[in-house]
Design a protein that fits this description.
Strand content of chain A: 5-15%
Number of strands of chain A: 7
Radius of gyration of chain A: 17 Å
Distance between the termini of chain A: 16 Å
Oligomer: homodimer
Shape of chain A: globular
Bound molecules: adenosine-5'-triphosphate, magnesium ion
Largest interface: A-B, 43 and 43 residues
Helix content of chain A: 40-55%
Structural class of chain A: alpha/beta
Chain lengths: 256, 256
């Protein structure tokens, strides 16, 4: 039965989208059936496959705000076992963007429930914020994966995020668990990065993935070439590290 | 008379906060009286000076949501000519965070108007989003400074941002102008960065600052040492580039 994993951090630019795209692609390579949902109006999941916003019809906000059938919004990527639902409509009405529904209605959870039997894993990429949309994502999810960029502002952002997750778990989704914390843009040649790695491992212990994602140009080239790093250069450190992560991710729940 | 400049990009991690802190510090060095307002609930302006959220009393949201006198919320930094107003209260009530007031009330503009006579420049650091808060920031501002990280996702984000600024200018703030576009985390050793620089200069021409901010470890160390890069190592490329930017910024309006 499909597990819904939300990728979340209110700190911007920490590698949420890069992780969503490259982890999904790696799991698809390991024969897992993957659906990736873009909940960020920036629409960078579709940009990762080279689509411009106006190229695509069918966007997640149509299921949320216009009650369209979510099955009609699923698009295939060029990769086997890997489907996605984009966010392509412009940001539109300010207030509409901030408020999906009261949290106790669990609207997104209801919309996504019919998808679980079709996929092994459903990932949700989130915008860099903590608001009504991301609260609904947490309520709809079985687990949460938190990318932590190896920099100090990202480290400082951790406290508010953990507090927010606890509030949602306590009041709305008691089954919500941590999938894990992923260290991203790691550069062990510099002290700053080393300090962050040490601090995170000391504080979050076994919740932190062994696998760390190094800073690697191939990962930054994903939106330029319109494909996950593995399909740009399968031997690049960026590609192999997400493949390692996928194996570690699967071994977590004994799938492998 | 103080000019209000809002630093904005809905793309996360492009260097909004780093620019807000280091440009403000550089302008203060050039004898400009600067106020920096943190409109991002992450509160990374205070983190840049080594303050923890609970260390400080008085936060911008108290002027917005509880009608506190804005003059009482001003804090001094250790640097002459450089004051700031932090955002230190926790994110709190979901809906409150998304909605300051109807845009035609120009609530933030009214709150900030009394400050203009006390400062040469007032900068606003924004969260990585386009919502009611950032719309009010645009309505309250004389000009907007847009950091563009030299990466492809950041480039793709530009279209929506320009559209949003145009909507606010047309409907709410006809005097809003572009202060300029700033290329950040530039690394001319890699092709990706070069392509972005070329593309941005071709599209936005003279609106793009000559000065480019290189990727430089001292800038990432600001929240670790709790001071702008110039005060960590004044000869570092990160420090000198923001000082160059400050001079170019002042020469724009003939101040120098
Ligand atoms: N390991 C890495 N090595 C090099 N570049 C990376 C790496 N991970 C991400 N990037 C680049 O860093 C930038 C930020 O990453 P990304 O956009 O995935 O973060 P995000 O958290 O999704 O951002 P946002 O908060 O805007 O949604 C992007 O330009 C991306 O290409
Ligand atoms: N020129 C630079 N060289 C090296 N590191 C940089 C540079 N500019 C910013 N950084 C680092 O990159 C990260 C992102 O920068 P910053 O937090 O200033 O961006 P932001 O746009 O304010 O992010 P957010 O969207 O979360 O508000 C930070 O860890 C910062 O220290
Ligand atoms: Mg993203
Ligand atoms: Mg910031």
């Amino acid at each position: 039965m499909g597990e819904i994993v939300t990728i979340l951090s209110q700190k911007g630019g920490v590698g949420k989208t890069t992780t969503a795209v490259n982890l999904s692609a790696s799991l698809a390579l390991l024969n897992q059936k993957i659906l990736l949902i873009d909940l960020d109006p920036q629409g960078h999941i579709s940009a990762s496959f080279g689509y411009a916003k106006y190229d695509i019809k069918g966007s997640i906000d149509e299921a949320i705000f216009e009650s369209k059938d979510i099955m009609d919004l699923i698009h295939k990527t060029p990769i086997d076992n890997f489907d996605f639902i984009p966010y392509v409509n412009e940001i539109g009405d300010r207030e509409h963007d901030c408020f999906i529904a009261p949290l106790n209605e669990a609207k997104l959870k209801k919309i996504l429930s019919g998808l679980k039997s079709h996929y092994d894993f459903i990932f949700i990429d989130n915008p860099p914020t903590l608001n009504n949309i991301t609260s609904h994502a947490l309520i709809a999810s079985d687990s949460v994966l938190v990318p932590i960029q190896c920099e100090f502002y990202a480290l400082k952002a951790l406290g508010s995020l953990l507090k927010e997750i606890k509030i949602i778990k306590t009041n709305y989704n008691p089954d919500l668990s941590y999938r894990g914390f992923l260290l991203t843009m790691v550069d062990l040649r510099n002290n700053l990065s080393k300090r962050v790695v040490t601090k995170v491992r000391q504080t979050l212990k076994e919740l932190v993935y062994e696998t760390m994602i190094p800073r690697n140009i191939r990962l930054a080239e994903v939106p330029y070439y319109g494909k996950p790093a593995y399909y740009i250069d399968k031997s690049a450190k960026g590609s192999t590290s997400y493949l390692d992560l996928a194996r570690e991710f699967l071994s977590q729940n004994g799938t492998i």
